[in-house]
Specification:
Strand order of the largest sheet: 5-10-9-6-11
Number of strands: 19
Helix content: 10-25%
Order of helices and strands: EHEEEHEEEEHEHEHEHHHEEEEEEEE
CATH architecture of the largest domain: 3-Layer(aba) Sandwich
CATH class of the largest domain: Alpha Beta
Structural class: alpha+beta
Number of helices: 8
Radius of gyration: 23 Å
Shape: globular
CATH topology of the largest domain: Rossmann fold
Strand content: 35-45%
C-alpha cells in the first residue's frame, strides 16, 4: 500500500442511492471524489474532513455472498488499513407511531437473527432461540456520534440495537416476529453482521448509521425513491457532521483495538468473574426455569473480553425425590463487555432455560470462562 492509499475512515454503502448520497454530501468538501482501483476493488477518495482521510466503497446486498458486506469490508480493511469503518445507508423502522421516515438509526449493538435454534415447546409450537453474537459497536465512535448529536439540527437520531439479517423485510408479521427477538430494537437492515465480523477479525472499530426509508410493513414500494433518498441523505449528512464536529487524532486510535486485547495476556492479577445473585431474576412457566443475572468482576482489571462462555456443571432440584429432569439448554453466550472500573456489574441480556419433569430447582452451578482462557470462576446460585 502506498502512502497515497492512507485511510482513516472507510465508508461502506450498498445501493446506488446510498453511494450517491455520500458522494453528494462529502462532495461539499470542495473536490470531486476520485475513484481508485486498489487490488480488485474500487474506492472513492472523498478527501479530508478535519484532517481525517475518508474513502468510500460499495458492497453488494447482504452479508455472505460474493462482494457482500463481509467480503467487501474485509477487502477494504486489507487494502486501506482504516482506523474505523462506518456503514452508511438505509434501514427499516420498527415503530410507525414514534419514528418517522428519515430518522437516523445509530447502532449501539447489532442483533443478528439468521443463526437460530428452532425447537418445539411442550404445546407443540416452535421455539426459536438466537445463537449468534449481539456485538457492541465501537465505544469511542459511539461517543463521537452521541456528542455530535448535541449540535446536530437535522433529522432525529436514535441510538439502540439494530436487527440485521439476510432477508429484505417488507411484511408486517415477519417484522413483528423478528422484533420479538429483541423488543428494544429500533430498526433493521441486511449488511451489519458482515461489517461486524470483518472488523472484529481485523481489530478495526466500526459503527452503523442508517436512515429509516420504510417500516417493513408491505408498503416499501410506496414513494420508494423519495423515501430512500431522504433516508440516505440524512444518514450521510449526520456522519459528515460527526466527522466535522471535532478534530480527532486518528493516528492515536490506529491499532488500539489490538492493544486492548493484548492486555488480557499481561494481567498481573487475574480476574474473577462472579454472579451477583441480588440481580438474578427467576421466572417459572410450564415446568421451565428462566434465569437472567448480572456478572461482576471482583479480581484484577480486564480491558476487554470478546466472549464469555457459560457451562452448566450441576443442577440442584428443590426436592431430592423430584431429581429427574429432561435436560438443559446449555447455551453459549458470546458478547462484548467492558470489565473495567468504575462499572462492576454487567447484564447478560439473555435467558437460560432449564426444563424439568417435576418441581422447581434451588439453584445450579456454572462455570464462566473467557475466550482468552485467562480466568474462570465456578459459582453456585441458591434460589432462596
Amino acid at each position: 500500500m502506498t502512502s497515497d492509499e492512507h485511510t482513516d475512515i472507510l465508508l461502506v454503502t450498498v445501493t446506488k442511492v446510498e453511494a450517491m448520497s455520500v458522494l453528494n454530501v462529502f462532495g461539499g468538501i470542495g473536490q470531486q471524489a476520485r475513484p481508485l482501483s486498489i487490488d480488485d476493488r474500487i474506492y472513492f477518495d472523498l478527501g479530508k474532513v478535519n484532517d481525517a482521510q475518508v474513502r468510500m466503497t460499495r458492497s453488494e446486498m447482504g452479508t455472505g455472498g460474493l462482494s457482500a458486506s463481509l467480503q467487501s469490508v474485509g477487502k477494504g480493511i486489507a487494502a486501506l488499513s482504516p482506523v474505523a469503518v462506518i456503514m452508511v445507508g438505509i434501514a427499516f423502522g420498527i415503530n410507525e407511531d414514534h419514528q418517522s421516515i428519515g430518522d437516523i438509526l445509530v447502532s449501539e449493538r447489532l442483533r443478528p437473527y439468521d443463526l437460530q435454534r428452532v425447537g418445539t415447546r411442550e404445546d407443540g409450537q416452535a421455539q426459536v432461540i438466537l445463537r449468534d453474537d449481539k456485538p457492541h459497536a465501537s465505544s469511542w465512535l459511539l461517543n463521537l456520534l452521541r456528542s455530535s448529536e448535541l449540535t446536530w439540527e437535522g433529522a432525529a437520531v436514535r441510538f439502540g440495537t439494530v436487527l440485521t439479517g439476510a432477508k429484505l423485510v417488507d411484511n408486517l408479521d415477519f417484522r413483528e416476529q423478528i422484533h420479538t427477538f429483541d423488543p428494544e430494537a429500533i430498526g433493521g437492515e441486511m449488511e451489519g453482521a458482515g461489517l461486524y465480523v470483518a472488523c472484529h477479525d481485523q481489530k478495526v472499530d466500526w459503527i452503523l448509521v442508517k436512515g429509516i426509508s420504510d417500516f417493513a410493513n408491505g408498503k416499501k414500494a410506496k414513494d420508494k425513491d423519495i423515501r430512500q433518498s431522504v433516508a440516505a441523505n440524512n444518514a450521510a449528512k449526520f456522519v459528515y457532521h460527526a466527522l466535522r464536529f471535532t478534530k480527532v487524532d486518528w493516528g492515536a486510535h490506529r491499532g488500539t483495538s489490538f492493544r486492548r486485547n493484548t492486555l488480557l495476556d499481561t494481567l498481573s492479577s487475574p480476574a474473577n468473574l462472579v454472579i451477583d445473585f441480588r440481580e438474578a431474576r427467576w421466572d417459572y412457566h410450564n415446568n421451565a426455569v428462566f434465569v437472567s443475572f448480572a456478572i461482576a468482576n471482583t479480581g484484577g482489571r480486564i480491558a476487554t473480553v470478546d466472549h464469555i462462555y457459560i457451562e452448566i456443571l450441576d443442577i440442584f432440584p428443590t426436592s431430592e425425590s423430584e431429581s429427574s429432569w429432561v435436560g438443559a439448554v446449555m447455551q453459549e453466550f458470546r458478547f462484548n463487555v467492558e470489565l473495567c472500573p468504575p462499572k462492576m456489574k454487567y447484564m447478560i441480556g439473555e435467558n437460560m432455560t432449564f426444563v424439568y419433569k417435576n418441581g422447581d430447582i434451588d439453584g445450579f452451578k456454572i462455570k464462566l470462562t473467557s475466550v482468552s482462557r485467562v480466568f474462570y470462576s465456578v459459582i453456585t446460585i441458591i434460589n432462596t
